[in-house]
Amino acid sequence: MTAIEWIVATAALTLTGISKVGFGGGPGVLATPLLAAVFPPRDAVGILLPLLIVSDAIAVWHYWRDVRWRTLAYLWPGMIAGIAAGALMFATVSDHQLRVMIGAVCLLFCGLQWWRRIILRIEERWHPNWPWGSVTGIAAGFTSTLAHAAGPVLMMYLVPQHLSPMIYVGSNSAFFAVLNLLKVPPYLHQGLITGHTLWLSLLGIPAIIVGSLIGIWLNRRFDSDRFGAIMYVLLFLTGLELLGARTALMGFLGGLG
After folding, report:
1. Nearest alpha-carbon partner for 234 in 172, 151, 175, 128
2. Counting Cβ atoms within 10 Å, is residue 21 exposed (0-12), middle (13-18) or buried (19+)?
3. What is the separation, in whole angstroms, between the first and last Cα of the chain?
4. Local structure of residue 124 (DSSP, 8 states)
5. pLDDT of residue 69
6. How many other CB atoms are there within 10 angstroms of residue 99's CB atom?
7. Distances (CA, A) of 134 to 72, 81, 112, 160
8. pLDDT top residue among 45 and 254
9. Spatial distance between the Cα atoms of 75 and 102, rounded to a whole number of angstroms
10. Contact 107, 243 (CB under 8 A)
11. Is the pLDDT of residue 124 over 80?
12. How far is residue 12's CA from residue 87's CA, in Å, rounded to a whole number?
């Protein structure tokens, strides 16, 4: 690996820690395409899973008392089905196709929410239910299994509930802690996690820890209203990135090489 590639990989992992532990996702979805610019895509996905589990463990340890388990209960059955579907579709859904679909949904969701709040001035708190929870769980399990890209999906489920920053990140972290652990068997079966990828994951742990600590510090400095606004902006920017910024990024890094 060149020095530029090490910098990109370290930046991706630090951003992952900040995003997951500070904001419950959002820009953390950039980690997979950033690592895929440095490593083969299958290796990138395999390297990242153990590091996501480390970040989840830090977040759950810190936010354990803030997890809203009732909200997560609606997600579990669909999540398991989504993981199974994703494991069966490893070879049929391309990374690009998946990212374009998620990016389009992110932008549509943000547009609908801003239209409701700014044009219609509707700001009531949304309450979770079984139909929406089941759909979200399936989508999260599926997209996370294929590309670690479920952060925006869960954001669309949690953000409209107007949760406090601590409850939002705590609930998000608990969900992904379970989801990522359940992904380990299919990843081992598909050969995505190997001795080589585990060694590279080990090298990335310091960056994940540093990012997680920065994320905890940032989370304490936002009230609920500002946090919610930031989440919508991050979701919108994530959608834009998923729809097109990856191509530009790969071309830029290729030019550096």
Report:
1. 151
2. buried
3. 10
4. P
5. 95
6. 23
7. 10, 9, 21, 16
8. 45
9. 18
10. yes
11. no
12. 25
